[in-house]
Input
Amino acid sequence: MRVVFTANGRRVEADDVWEGESLLYVLRERVGLPGSKNACEQGECGSCTVYLDGVPVCACLVAAGQVQGREVRTVEGLTGPDGALGPVQQAFLEAGAVQCGFCTPGLLVQTDALLARDPRPSDGDIREALSGNLCRCTGYEKIMDAVRLASARISGISGEGGGA
Amino acid sequence: MEFLRPASWDEALAAMAEHPGALPVSGGTDVMVELNFDLRRPPAVLDLNRVAELAEWSSDGASVRLGAAVPYARIIDELAGPLPGLATAARTVGSPQIRNRGSVGGNLGAASPAGDAHPPLLAAGRGVRVEAHSVRGVRLIPIDEFYLGVKRNCLAPDELIRAVRIPVADGPQQFSKVGTRNAMVIAVCAFALALHPADGTVGTGIGSAAPTPRRAPEAEEYLRESLDWTSGGPLDPQVPLRFGELVAAAADPIDDVRGTAAYRRHALAVLARRTLAWCWDDYREQLGRTA
Output
């Protein structure tokens, strides 16, 4: 079947999509957006987190046919129009919150959603918001630092060193 | 395999009549796992995302009609007042991403004994009804008759779950579950308790400790007789102990990768005692018996 949807503001079409295929497969293999990672295929790890109509979801658990006519935003869509890194991406880079990098795309989208909803989350809120994103390198402390850094910048509060 | 995309509820029912083996999918948090891992190859998949009314709920003050596809995230945000037991259970479902997609209709359709929504639905009372529709008509199925076996419910092949009707809480409700971490946990066992001061009854629900979700009828009867609803005095220490024993005895658990039968029985007794203490404290506070 053919599936037509919007990905990062651009209309995309995928042909010969299998009826049981996931959105994740379509993104990675059919429309050239491999940023979302394929790890568990069962919603356990969060590496494929994308926005679907503004709501963060696991792309591996969305049937491709379900996105017909809808809006998807992936990690590739977190950059500015000029290709510059978004504030969450920049903070992860600076805080060293990337080890092997496999979980990073999902963490970036989920953090972006958290800070859009609550620019100044507590540590408990951050842990809860990221509880569905697994880092196999177990680099969670740097990830916490990155979210705090992004939070400080987005909410315009000084003392950016993290740990706020 | 066909992918069916009805634009309305009537179209969805017609499609189910025409393709009785079709597998409905809404949030996909169960169905897509089965497709991704080649565990299931239905002749057709029926997407319900375009049927907007499935994601709506309404209330007449006495009960809530919860659309089958209202995601857990919205149950937490919007229904913690009228449905506190279900909202508490919803907070323990999967992860934020899963709660943005998963729904009670999906839990009921999958009918896994480990589904987090089942225990609070049972505890909310025997008046809970699953609204099943087909082109042949509407059935209001009592929750106690809904679950038939492991991952089996009483829906006919052409029926779809439209909504669940749940009485608004008339007293404290609690839910507790055991797992290895605080997120992404399939319950080792779970327990829900609801006090119904309006008629002096108690509701229970046991999860992940029998072939189906089930209540603990003797434990409910014991509490009904033992609780001093009018005075709201402190619990006799014997009451939670006996209640825990009766809940554990009502379970029929197995040994599996998540835990042993013996552990599940033990843990259920603990969860039963704790939830009773929490609920009774809340009830006493409502009566003004504590500071």
